[in-house]
Amino acid sequence: MKEVTFGQYYPVDSFIHRMDPRLKIVFLIGFIVAIFLADNFYGLAACAGVLILAVALSRVPVGKVLRAVRGILFLVIFTAAINILFHTGEHVYWQWSIFSVTREGILFSAYLILRLVLLVVCSSLLTYTTTPVSLTDGIESLLTPLKWIRFPVHALALIMSIALRFIPILMDETDRIKNAQKARGADFESGGPIKRIKAFIPILVPLLLSAFRRADELGDAMDARCYGGKTRTKYKKLHFTWRDLLGFLLLAALITGVVLLRIYVGEML
Question: Does the reported pTM lie above 0.90?
Fold first, then answer.
């Protein structure tokens, strides 16, 4: 449970930490677009190189960043196995009944694994280098045009920030409840899938009660501070700096390079 990286902030003074949260959000969106535009290994290698540079500039330990991959490890293995066994192609290495292993299936699975890993690592790097408050301010600033149609931008940004921040808190709470149930003789490891699912019911009930209690306490704390969410001023103003300009130019160069590789190199399957 402690390996969950989403919602965690790694406090350190770095180039990435000092960047404007709005640019980091835009960079994440553009990076995701570049990942799915890349249809060959050269494009994915360019995306990986940019991400490695970002991790190095963030000064976040590489092992801590890679922990995000553990959460999707089962999904990666499962989807890779499905694509390898069921993806059709011309170059067949092995075939039995409806199952087959082809060169195209292996390459497609490799693309899928790289895309998932890059996506998760980049998303985790955003939360590692941006505080929940800065993330809320960045989302609210980017969605400012929606205020013209009376959309509750501030409320949406606040909800997203609270939900992101509560992920590690609830995971820690789950860990504590699970250890308490184990101390009382609960068994979560043995038996079939149905038995294991039933064994987690004593965890879900107190976890839901704890989540509602925390939400109620948070609401009371906000009411006690007269929080209304209307025409609120900012203690820290967001400003674009030369770091953000460099980040934007790097993103533009990445997307341009991926598009050119897509046009002149093409799909490599």
Answer: no
pLDDT averages per 10-residue partition of the chain, 269 residues? 60 89 92 88 89 91 81 78 73 71 77 87 88 82 82 79 78 83 76 73 84 87 76 72 91 91 72
The DSSP element (H or E) to which 92 belongs, if any, is: strand 92-96
Q: DSSP labels for 14-37?
A: -TTTTS-HHHHHHHHHHHHHHHHH
Residues 6+ apart with CB under 8 A from 226: none
Cα–Cα–Cα angle for 188, 113, 78, rounded to 5 degrees: 40
Amino acid at 247: G
Q: Which pair of tokens denotes residue 83?
A: 């694509």
Whether the CB-CB separation of 7 and 127 falls below 8 Å is answered with: yes
Q: CA-CA distances (angstroms) from residue 50 to 54, 87, 201, 254? A: 6, 30, 44, 8
71 — phi, psi (to 5°)? Answer: -65, -25
Say what the alpha-carbon torsion angle 221, 7, 70, 258 is, to the nearest 10 degrees: 160
Please state at what angle helix 62-70 crosses helix 103-129, rounded to 10 degrees: 120
How many other C-beta atoms are found inside a 10 Å radius of the C-beta of residue 153?
A: 17
